[in-house]
Design goal:
Lipocalin; 26% strand; globular; alpha+beta
Length: 316
């Protein structure tokens, strides 16, 4: 039996587009990724749905470093119950107290509250154009001087803003008038931030951590930092290093997305190196079972000054 369908011309066009569209769309789709400038590393950005199909196609940078980020964070394999609600202080403010995995993690939470580290930095696509001075000094090729090429190889502090991207946990301890952020990496590098709305200190000395003050805008915590040494901008670069100037002004905006995830937005205003401020948003994931481990740079330092020796386990 032959069945005749009466199809209007407009519907015929729509049907043709429906069947032809996937071919065109597929040819235009490129994997989402974030890349460091000056031919730096790139990481895939996967949705929780894509993790199930695309994760196996991603080649890790190393056995312990995943070369992908899950956005938004994925808890589908987690075996730790999520908090039922966003915690608040007695004063009614969001409470960020706890141990967090920041931008240096994949945000694919696995069994037993695990999460894999990654190596990433700021996304070149989010950065503002460079000033003439920034074109000269923001990217610095390898020089042979570890003070420039790899200062952490000399046990010098990683500093803020590089600490944003370390693949180590960070602990936030919140009180009514202060927030303390402790980093596991580099001797538990800490920031003590007043939350009472006070201004910056006058005549601030330049330091690795800078001078930070905080205030609330509704449910968003705003942290304002100045007084930073000229230092590394983010993580190690495969061809050199990225730097910020001593004029850098950083604004962090932190707010809960749900009970286990916060949005962490960073605005960078460096008039010496960039023509205008620019921002990038990251996620931080709460890990209820994590604690900070002690990190002493000089302890078991087998690569002092870049001169590495084998550990006992590596010796024949």
């Amino acid at each position: 039996m032959k069945i005749n369908f009466a199809v209007r011309p407009t519907v015929k066009v729509a049907i043709a587009m429906l069947f032809l569209a996937p071919i065109a769309v597929i040819s235009q789709i490129k994997p989402r990724q974030v890349c460091s400038p000056f031919e730096g590393r790139c990481l895939r950005v996967l949705t929780p749905t894509e993790v199930k199909t695309e994760k196996a196609k991603v080649t890790p940078l190393a056995d312990f470093l995943d070369s992908f980020i899950v956005s938004p964070p994925d808890f589908s394999r987690s075996t730790v119950p999520a908090r039922k609600s966003i915690p608040r202080t007695r004063e009614g403010k969001p409470d960020f107290t706890g141990v967090w995995a920041g931008a240096g993690f994949s945000h694919e939470v696995g069994p037993r509250d695990t999460e894999s580290p990654i190596i990433r930095g700021f996304d070149a696509a989010k950065m503002a154009p460079l000033t003439p001075l920034g074109q000269q000094k923001m990217f610095r090729p390898f020089t042979g001087d570890l003070n420039i090429d790899d200062p952490i190889g000399l046990c010098l502090p990683y500093g803020f803003t590089s600490q944003i991207f370390v693949p180590y946990a960070q602990q936030w301890i919140q009180a009514p008038n202060y927030l303390v952020i402790r980093h596991e990496f580099q001797n538990n590098f800490s920031r003590a931030i007043p939350l009472d709305g006070r201004p910056h200190q006058k005549d601030v000395d330049l330091t690795w951590g800078g001078d930070s003050v905080g205030h609330w805008e509704g449910n968003t915590l705003v942290i304002d930092t100045i007084g930073l040494k000229e230092w590394w901008l983010d993580n190690p670069h495969p061809k050199g290093s990225l730097w910020h100037s001593d004029a850098l002004h950083v604004i962090e905006r932190v707010k809960y997305v749900d009970s286990m995830v916060v949005s962490y937005e960073v605005t960078m205003d460096d008039p010496k190196y960039f023509t205008k401020p620019w921002s990038e948003e990251f996620h931080m994931v709460f890990h209820p079972t994590w604690n900070l481990l002690e990190f002493v740079c000089k302890e078991n330092d087998r690569c002092s000054g870049g001169h590495c020796v084998e550990s006992d386990a590596q010796k024949p």
